[in-house]
């Protein structure tokens, strides 16, 4: 497990979006949205739950991001 909240590959993916100059609205390809959502899901399993398997603050943030990236 990595020291930071976000693993390097997830932080890099989000950083790419930020560097592209996107502030409040983001357009991602389906493939990029899927990839970021998958990375969030992996991180959720690592840091997103308390001792009773309830989502903690990090988990709620990750779940929210995953919901926003859902392609349905």
Shape: globular
Task: Give the SSE string.
Answer: HHH
Helix-strand makeup class? mainly alpha
| Helical fraction | 55-70%
The N- and C-terminal alpha carbons lie at a distance of: 31 Å
Model regions low in confidence, pLDDT < 50 over at least 5 residues: none
Largest sheet: none
Proportion of beta-strand residues: under 5%
Determine the mean pLDDT. 82
Radius of gyration: 13 Å
What does this structure look like?
- By secondary structure, the chain is mostly helical.
- Helix content is 58%, strand content 0%.
- It has a domain at 29-72.
- Helix 2 (30-47) packs antiparallel against helix 3.
- It is globular.
Short descriptors:
mainly alpha, 3 helices, 58% helix
In short:
With 72 residues, this protein is mainly alpha-helical. The protein has helices at residues 8-19, 30-47, 57-68.
Write the layout of secondary structure elements.
Blueprint: H1 8-19, H2 30-47, H3 57-68
Helix pairs in contact: 1-2, 2-3
């Amino acid at each position: 497990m990595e020291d930071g909240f976000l693993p390097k590959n997830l932080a890099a993916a989000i950083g790419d979006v930020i560097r592209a100059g996107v502030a409040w609205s983001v357009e991602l390809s389906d493939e990029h949205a899927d990839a970021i959502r998958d990375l969030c899901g992996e991180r959720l399993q690592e840091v997103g739950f308390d001792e009773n398997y309830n989502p903690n603050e990090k988990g709620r943030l990750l779940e929210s991001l995953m919901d926003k990236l859902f392609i349905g």
